[in-house]
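Two proteins follow. First one:
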Amino acid sequence: MKADLIVGIQWGDEGKGKMVDMLAQNYDMVCRSQGGHNAGHTIWVDGVRYALHLIPSGVLNPDAVNIIGNGVVLSPESIIKEMEQFDDLEGRLFISDKAHLNLPYHALIDQAKERLKGDKAIGTTGKGIGPAYAEKISRNGFRVGELLNPTKLCASILEYFEQNKAIFDVLEIATPSQTELVELLTTYKEKLEPFIANTTNMVWDAIDADKKILLEGAQGTLLDIDHGTYPYVTSSNTVSAGACTGLGISPKDIGVVTGIVKAYTTRVGNGPFPSEDFGQDGETMADVGKEVGTTTGRGRRCGWFDAIAVKHAARLNGCDQLSLMKLDVLDGFETIKICTAYEVNGEIIKYMPSDLEDVKPIYEDIAGWDSVVGCREFDALPENAKKYINRIEELTGVRVGIVSTSPERDDTIIRG
């Protein structure tokens, strides 16, 4: 059995949470491979809103095992708070002992560095994700498994502070007291110890037992540390290949890859965004789509569907199909635009350059429609909505296999 994979194709916030939640009802195991609590998945079930940041979206399937892989940077404080939403997680949630810890001082570093950059700030969430990954890469990080010995971990952290005292002084970050730090780490251990495991072997065993496995990442392809709009990116590999390193599985273990895209485009924070709409249409998308970050509460920048960027991202991820989310947000628009090419220095191109600064979008207009809300069959969609979907398929070269017509789990079209 292969492990199927869900991946964001834009700048995150594509609606992966709803898709993973819906698909997870048919899977035995759901695995999160990268990112941290800077990610936010919003799921609506029977009118109830669930906001997940670290726990995999399969948590709403009582029969699914949920794995937080080694590629995640884990905030103990955040996940403990998130776990309080549920009362039946033992035996259903497991955290890799090799995942790196995102501790309170990482957020302080993150926020201090953003302040020092002034108007050149990247626009991070300030959650400490970058500093935690930076320490991991520089081999100065601390792993989840080390929580099992709070006293030893405390000594290691204090030694790290001493070695980097000059840097912490410049950032105005105080060294934590030994007593308070041991107490905090002991609390983390007490809460999390039942969930810490060798998740790599668990996933391998599930694959060998022909269990149905679903893999999910965080953020989106255009925020990938290597392939995104650098430096306005996240600190991990958000593409499908990142699931292999983030969980310890082989590329040969990957099955169907589903790319999640919005019917329009959004972005949080700074960085280039060719198809951004600065007028009333962009404001309408933000208002109707409730485009506010699950994690940060920041408003999302909104614009039209960028077929060039989506085609590029779909190729990077090896997408077998696309899942088109929030089609209903475009209800009522008289005209809908699709970015079909870029203009760069007077030249028209139909590929995504490495630098999106000063790129101008070339649009194609498509007639709008009345409403798609609640449609659960493709034939039930308005004709212009079908034309829009067909045009996206033509431009991206990938079939749209799933269409979401409202936030509710069941308002979803699965095309055979």
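Second one, unrelated to the first:
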Amino acid sequence: MRFIFKTSYDQDIRLAKHGGHRFWYGLLLAALVTAPWWLESYGLAQLTFILIYGIVGLGLMLLAGFTGLFSIGHAAFLGVGAYTQAVLAAQGWPFPLSLAAAAGLSAAVGAVVGLPALRVKGIYLGIATLAFGFIVEEVLARWESVTGGNAGLMVGQPQMFGWVADSGETFYFLCLVITVACTLAVLNLLRSPTGRAFVAIRDSEISAQSMGIHLAYYKTLSFAISAALAGIGGALYAHAIRFLSPDQFNIIASIDLLLMVVIGGLGSVHGAFLGAIFLIGMPQAISALKDVLPDTIAQAPGLKAVIYGAVLIAFVLFEPMGLYGRWLKIRTWFQLFPFYRKGLFKRQKAFQKSDRLR
């Protein structure tokens, strides 16, 4: 088991806490960089979608996992970013400018949607974001002169200053660079005073307010940053899917995104990517499962929904910390073996005095 003795504040906020982090994350980055050489085109396309959904998951994780504000209409921000990128790319905008515009417009919309978060919370905030999702879907369907309506909108390839991502490999590297940049940005944000304010709001709004944290400002900022990341993911998603229609950003897509961060592990940057792997890999697993099931079950129209619901219920009941929480338990078991105690991760109902006043 590794013991780390910290002797400075810089050491406490360092991204890589020890040599093991540098080794394993360096190995992961090397594997991702060399992926086009050891993955087939289909596997590379699936890995590209994992990176895209990982960016969206980072935004939703920042909102739900670190600020404690849940959104059931987050696919709307994904749609805003995707359609903004598609429209501007069709007008000849370079990819960096259109990507920045997609992130900026999504952030502005997120700030407006974040205003209800100043007065409502819990299930009422979820209803407000759900209503916003329906509004965006209807606007995308009715604004035919810009979005193409239900007929859809074709999206070209990313291009900037004479360079075009005209192959799966080049587009994968583009997504990889943007994903690494977004991940580093979120990690640095979380160790800054702003990120600590988000966590304080999540743990106790009363305690955070008593420490001088402006709740309205930081809640709105959290919504805006989360929406901006969803807009970046939406811009990449538009180029990956090459065709957009309003039904791609409906309530089902929002539930899938929320399911992604819950199963990945709330309150963890790793959980965003583990949830993205689950979201992309689960349909493949269901397709493989259909081959061994009886035809009456395999051809049932609601099989996918039943499996997703059962998996979510299982995680909520038996592993509320998600996939990353399960990995922490496995890692701790190996570190402490044979002295691992069964109830080490048992959830305790401990509340601060400020929470009891509600």
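SUMMARY FIELD: The chain is about 70% helix and 0% strand. The first helix runs from residue 9 to 12.
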